[in-house]
Design brief:
heterodimer, A: alpha/beta, Pyruvate-ferredoxin Oxidoreductase, domain 3, 21% strand, B: alpha/beta, 2 domains, 8-stranded mixed beta sheet
Chain lengths: 596, 304
């Protein structure tokens, strides 16, 4: 294998330093642009830089336009970036669709054999490069267009003066498992791109990364969620494949045997949740998951889990709905389904991670809460979090690792599975019971689990199941306010909008508004006393990726208005299936502020 | 919380002898004369004979008259939702090799709303025993057509007689890949006990269809297989029927009512439980004795 350093490209313009760069790669889904992005994102983590990525994928099996956007920075990066500094266009359609996303004076690197019509505007530098021909020339033989993504990676490595050896090392680790010729060809293409003369655009050097003295990891939300589940003590569960959830079940399926566990691919969503409840009843911390349509199918069993008070983790990686909807796009339209989607009064806990790093910690918290409150915990992730890559501090397993185990200690003659004055602690099968053996039931039951149709008992048990969540609500800390602690507007968000909302606060403050933001991770129950957050703000704007609905408010805004009867709570919503851009939030908030 | 090593259940006697008296829980809610009483009695007797440790017995059910079964057995029990008893039991069986999993239900639960789960639990060969108390009618909801109701049966949903062809449980189970398939009758307690015992001892997915009359909504449904009502109870002669021959079993399942009773099919095939464990053992052997926490640490380090 060849890892000799290629000579750096000849460039007539000088290098300039920068703190941030947004690169948009636009091509088709089979061009391997995701791997270019993945390599660069991993490099960012290794060089103490920050990164956030954003991708679109068509829901077809192969083919169709696709983009991968990468925001690299020396300091904290909160979004994937509104506008790109560099656009790499593989085709005419890529150019036509994405040239508008390039900032004024940005650089467009395009495949000269494909892109022939240009919009020469806004001072954009156009640099035509024969990606395919140069790759074929470098690799030789019948390479066709395989490897042109590696050529582009080399090109970007040179333009941004990235650490070539570290990047090559990451590429080697990726391809090293495969046939030796695959790695050799990849490195030939990479080096050809690295050495290609790009002309007079100059090169850029990132300021040194600010994340010193810490181990940085970079990965996507679904992968990290899976790791969080393992750290939380999850060893069993079951699921059915559905985009964008599937990669979690794939990861658990192949990882859990290392820990003595089993992840089962079920015949359908109903069986998946039932098997998971079975493993939970058997005394394990277990997880099932899906996207919105699958969560709907699981609803009857989830209502059972509330009634029978079974601890359980359920992950919903939200996508655009309703129905098959936009299966590869992002939306936050399952909040009400998560909280209220089942029949009957069935309290359960709903959490949402705010970024990729939080996917790890929310999984841990879900495990802890499920056990502590003996009820289902739903985690609302989304398509954006599932696939985007971020760099973050490596979790300290010595502090958060939960050793799995079964509590099969003997229970006395007075054992009751459903005591009215305590939170339920089930005795799993295998537990010796001195008295009568317990029945776990979906029928309304008495304290021993025996069916009971008593009006008094149903009232008391309904209260038992509800009151534990009220206790939880009181124990939750209020979210911190970011930005101004009082003033014109408090922005409230949940889930993957955390970064864009935070950046919007900065933008609005720079424009002279007094703006703060709070992010809610505990969506049901919410922390008690949320009204204290907005007491000193004139307006509250809830920013969500769902519809305004018939009554003019997004799903979380509706809940907050219902809970606090507070008319100053307003909504900024959108349903285009894309992650929020800063300017969309800023414009939306300004509109609400103007409407006095 | 203690981490426990779970091993396959041994048929060792419990601390105290397990008797019908100990195993009896709530008084059954079934109607007087219901066939399910006899099924419950036979189950007690088989457990008395097998003497499994009391705490290792788990009864699972879905929804229906017969699915009330777990409440009537003083053992660990879980009463789940309609049709999903098998996947729930699968979750228990795969994650707890140390317990005995028994599933009870009716024809609606097993062949209609839960029909697909039966196919998949069978093909996966999940280690558990499933007793389907088949009464050819929906009883709990008061006389609607069931998936096993014969054509012409008059019910509230088929006032002029059932139109749809019924399921043939034996053929369905043979096609699904179940490794122990038997048919018995609630009025034949001795035969029922023999079949239950063999099913329970089978290492794999064992399923027993047990004809159990609903005296309220389908009285006389099984008279043709009840000798004291003039019927014939025709038990399979295993010297003539090879229980490993699925084609012969399939042909036998096509005999006109009342058909034959006993073990139709019995074959050894590795359970999913065993095959998953084999994968776990093989995977863990490659980890060089690292602790679970160290395994995850190494996995995270790969993301650096």
């Amino acid at each position: 294998m060849s890892t000799a350093t290629a000579s750096a490209p000849a460039s007539s313009a000088p290098s300039s330093t920068l703190r941030n760069a947004v690169i948009r790669l636009a091509g088709n889904s089979q061009d391997g642009i995701q791997s270019i992005g993945g390599f660069l994102a991993r490099l960012a983590g290794r060089t103490q830089h920050d990164v956030m990525t954003y991708m679109t994928i068509p829901s077809t099996i192969s083919g169709g336009p696709s983009i991968f956007q990468l925001h690299l920075g020396s300091g904290h990066v909160l979004t994937a970036g509104d506008e790109a500094d560099v656009l790499v266009a593989f085709y005419q359609h890529s150019y036509d669709s994405h040239i508008g996303s390039l900032r004024e004076g940005g650089i467009c690197l395009y495949e000269s054999a494909e892109v022939t019509e240009f919009k020469n505007e806004r001072g954009i530098h156009h640099i035509g490069i024969p990606f395919t021909a140069a790759t074929i020339e470098a690799i030789g033989g019948s390479a066709r267009d395989r490897g042109k993504n590696m050529f582009v990676l080399g090109l970007l490595c040179a333009v941004y003066q990235l650490d070539r050896d570290k990047l090559a090392g990451i590429v080697e680790r990726q391809f090293g498992k495969k046939d030796e010729s695959v790695l050799r060809n990849a490195m030939l293409a990479f080096d050809a791109g690295y050495a290609y003369p790009v002309g007079d655009i100059g090169t850029f050097i990132f300021e040194e990364g600010e994340h010193k003295d810490e181990h940085r990891l970079s990965t996507d939300g679904n992968t990290l969620m899976s790791m969080g589940l393992i750290a939380a003590g999850v060893r069993y569960g079951s699921a059915y494949p559905i985009t964008p959830w599937s990669s979690i079940m794939e990861t658990l399926r192949s990882e859990l045997p290392k820990y003595g566990g089993i992840y089962v691919q079920a015949e359908d969503e109903l069986a998946a949740v039932a098997m998971t409840i079975g493993a939970a009843y058997a005394g394990h911390l277990a997880v099932t998951g899906s996207a919105g349509p699958g969560l709907s199918l699981k609803m009857e069993a989830l209502s059972y889990a509330s009634m029978a008070e079974i601890p359980l983790i359920v992950i919903n990686v939200q996508r655009g709905g309703p129905s098959t909807g936009l299966p590869t796009s992002v939306e936050q339209s399952d909040l009400l389904q998560a909280i209220y989607g089942s029949h009957g009064d069935c309290p359960r806990i709903v959490l949402a991670p705010q970024d990729v790093e939080d996917c790890f910690y929310i999984a841990l918290e879900a495990g802890r809460l499920a056990r502590e409150y003996s009820c289902p915990v739903i985690i609302l992730s989304d398509q954006a979090l599932s696939s985007r890559i971020e760099a973050f501090t490596e979790p300290d397993l010595d502090k958060c690792w939960v050793e799995p185990g079964l509590d099969l200690s003997d229970r006395g003659a007075d054992f009751k599975p459903y005591p009215l004055d305590k939170i339920t602690r089930h005795a799993p099968p295998g537990t010796k019971i001195a008295g009568k053996y317990p029945h776990v039931s979906g029928l309304e039951h008495d304290e021993y689990g025996h069916p009971s149709g008593s009006p008094k008992m149903h009232t008391a048990m309904t209260a038992k199941r509800r009151n534990k969540l009220i206790d939880l609500s009181k124990s939750l800390p209020l979210p911190e306010i970011y930005g101004d602690q009082e003033g014109d507007v408090l922005l409230i968000g949940w889930g993957s909008t955390y970064g864009p909302i935070k950046e919007s606060v900065e933008r609005l403050r720079a424009e002279g508004h007094k703006v703060g933001a709070a992010h809610i991770r505990h969506l049901h129950p919410m922390p008690a006393g949320l009204d204290r957050l907005w007491a000193k703000f004139k307006k509250v704007v809830v920013v969500e990726m769902n519809d305004y609905g018939v009554y003019g408010h997004g799903q979380l805004a509706m809940l907050l208005r219902a809970a606090y009867a507070e008319p100053k709570i307003q909504s900024v919503c959108k349903t285009d299936g894309l992650a929020y851009r800063i300017r969309e939030i800023v414009t939306g908030v300004e509109k609400v502020m103007a409407a006095n | 919380m203690s981490s426990t090593t779970l091993e396959a259940p041994a048929a060792v006697p419990a601390d105290g002898k397990l008797t019908k008296k100990i195993l009896t829980a709530d008084h059954p809610t079934w109607c007087p004369g219901c066939g399910d009483f006899a099924v419950l009695a036979a189950f007690y007797k088989v457990l008395e004979k097998l003497q499994y440790p009391h705490e290792k017995i788990v009864c699972v059910a879905g929804i229906g008259c017969s699915s009330r079964f777990p409440y009537f057995v003083n053992s660990h029990g879980i009463h789940f939702i309609h049709g999903r008893a098998l996947p729930l039991a699968t979750g228990i069986s795969l994650s707890r090799p140390d317990v005995h999993v028994f599933v009870f239900g009716g024809d609606g639960d097993g062949f209609s709303i839960g029909g697909n789960h039966l196919n998949h639990a069978a093909r996966k060969n999940i280690k558990l025993t499933y007793v389907i108390m088949d009464n050819y009618v929906y009883g709990l909801t008061k006389k609607q057509t069931s998936p096993t109701s014969p054509q012409g049966f008059k019910s509230k949903t088929d006032p002029t007689g059932a139109i749809d062809r019924p399921i043939n449980p034996m053929k369905q189970l043979l096609a699904s890949g179940a490794t122990f398939i038997a048919r018995t009758h609630a009025a034949q307690v001795k035969h029922m006990m023999d079949v239950f015992e063999r099913a329970i001892k089978h290492d794999g997915f064992s399923v027993v269809e047990c004809l159990s009359e609903c005296v309220m909504f389908y009285e006389g449904s099984f008279d043709d297989s009840t000798p004291r009502k003039g019927g014939v109870y025709d038990i399979i002669d295993e010297t003539q029927h090879d229980t490993k021959d699925d084609v012969a079993a399939f042909k036998m399942a096509d005999l006109p009512s009342p058909g034959k009773f006993g073990v139709y099919y019995e074959v050894d095939r590795p359970t999913k439980n065993a095959m998953e464990q084999k994968w776990i053992d093989g995977t863990q052997a490659k980890l060089g004795g690292l602790s679970q926490k160290e395994v995850l640490k190494k996995r995270l380090e790969m993301m650096r």
